[in-house]
Design brief:
This protein has 221 residues and is of the alpha/beta class. The chain has a single domain (18-144, 187-220), classed as 3-Layer(aba) Sandwich (Rossmann fold), CATH 3.40.50.150. It is 45% helix and 23% strand. The protein is built from eight helices and seven strands. Strands 3-2-1-4-5-7-6 form a seven-stranded mixed sheet, with helices on both faces.
Length: 221
């Protein structure tokens, strides 16, 4: 599915979110900059939007992994155009079976990919394994707004309007109906914090963005 929509993925992300997804990634990078990690793993990197944004934190190496070759191919073009191939590398890999040694990264990030893990706990545990002691986890993911009437307007847009626009532009019948379904099924807030800590992390916190449409989750090894 992600291979099918790779060519339109960036445009649809920015268009359907009114560009707010760019702001959300900047917020994650600002939080990460305080840690100043040198080696960063970006899991479910997709077209490498976050991997590229992470350059603002001045890392020595960013490794992006994804299971979609189509998405990675788009990301590699962007990285080549920006001439940052020495810092960012992308490779085909599964978040639940990371091809890296224990404690090999200072930080691990996931941007709108955690809800796509087949087994969330296994993915979180693998990221924990490759983090060095004291390293930080950063997850940016959709959550669910609760304030009236914003919640009702958001549900209308996210459930009906967004999938229709996504289907028309991407020419994929499933991709943008899958999005609200996956968000609805994914744990958020304190529930996700508990799952993260059950995988070995400490001090799991969630930071809501834009009235709860998305959240940044942070935790430490």
């Amino acid at each position: 599915m992600f291979d099918n929509i790779a060519g339109n993925y960036d445009f649809l992300n920015h268009f359907l979110s009114l560009g707010i997804d760019i702001f959300w990634r900047k917020r994650l990078v600002r939080k990460l900059k305080k840690q100043a990690p040198k080696r960063i793993l970006d899991v479910a990197t997709g077209t490498a939007d976050l991997a590229i944004a992470l350059l603002k934190s001045n890392p020595s190496k960013v490794v992006g992994i994804d299971i979609s070759k189509g998405m990675l191919d788009v990301g590699k073009i962007k990285i080549k155009e920006k001439n940052v191939e020495e810092i960012i590398s992308l490779q085909l890999a599964d978040s639940e079976d990371l091809p890296f040694e224990d404690a090999s990264f200072d930080a691990v990030t996931v941007s709108f990919g955690a809800r796509n893990f087949e087994n969330l706990e296994k993915g979180l545990s693998e990221m924990f394994r490759v983090l060095r002691p004291g390293g930080q986890l950063y997850i940016l993911e959709f959550s669910k707004p609760t304030l009236f009437p914003f919640k009702q307007l958001y549900d209308l847009y996210f459930t009906f309007i967004l999938p229709l626009i996504g289907k028309i532009i991407s020419k994929d019948n499933a991709a943008y109906s899958y999005l609200p379904e996956s968000v609805s099924a994914f744990p958020h807030g304190k529930k996700l914090n508990t799952i993260i800590e059950n995988c070995g992390y400490t001090n799991a916190k969630n930071h809501p963005l834009t009235m709860g449409i998305a959240s940044i989750y942070t935790a430490q090894k």
